[in-house]
Amino acid sequence: MKLTRAAGLAAILLLAATGAVRADGSGDPKPVSEDAGKYMDKDGNPTFNIKDGKVDFYTYIGYVRYAANCLQCHGPDGLGSTYAPSLVNSLQHLSYPQFMATVAGGKKDVSAAQTLVMPSLGTNKNVMCYIDAIYVYLRARSDGALDRERPKAHEPKPKGFQEAEDSCMG
């Protein structure tokens, strides 16, 4: 059976209207649990929690850490640059484990037109100590829940965050 372009478009619109199509490679970003200010989805992946324009602390600190460590290559809002791809688009098909593996282990894509290299950041504490927060920020951007500006309001730093940060950073 051959689908016409109109029938294909109608099927896509129907799936989008029913919520079956998610922009997030990790699935539904709806938070179902929280532990010390860190929200998790039904599959245990870190996720964002934005209510009335106020972001959770991890989304906020993810924005800050992304700006300090990732924007040089991937652009100030995750939309990419001439040097590196859009992470907002990448998270539409990457799962949390795939994201973690790429950041920690790096990646190299070679084509006739270009060579793209993501360096391994697995030993970079400025990235890895905040990797969940960076992921949460990019997940919110990828799902369209957060615009490109600095979050205007955020939840306070959760108890235990400073201790975990100090422990990780050494």
Features:
170 residues, alpha+beta, Cytochrome Bc1 Complex, Chain D, domain 2, three-stranded antiparallel sheet, three-stranded mixed sheet, 8 helices, disordered N terminus
Name given to the CATH architecture: Orthogonal Bundle
Q: Show unreliable segments.
A: 1-22
Total domain modules: 1
Shape: globular
- In whole angstroms, the N-to-C terminal distance is 61 Å
Briefly note the structural class of the backbone: alpha+beta
* Name of the top-level CATH class: Mainly Alpha
Order of helices and strands: HEEEEEHHHHEEHHEH
Helix content: 40-55%
Q: Tell me the fraction of residues in β-strands, as a range.
A: 5-15%
What does this structure look like?
The strands form 3 sheets. The chain has a 3-stranded antiparallel beta sheet. A 3-stranded mixed beta sheet has the order 4-5-8. Strands 6-7 form a two-stranded antiparallel ribbon. The protein has helices at residues 5-18, 57-69, 71-74, 87-90, 96-105, 125-128, 131-142, 161-169; strands at residues 33-35, 38-40, 46-47, 50-51, 54-55, 107-110, 115-118, 153-154. The protein has a single domain (22-165), classed as Orthogonal Bundle (Cytochrome Bc1 Complex, Chain D, domain 2). Helix 2 (57-69) packs across helix 7 (131-142). The protein has 170 residues and is α+β, with helices and mostly antiparallel strands. The chain is built from 8 helices and 8 strands. A hairpin with a 2-residue loop joins strand 1 and strand 2. 41% of the residues lie in helices and 13% in strands.
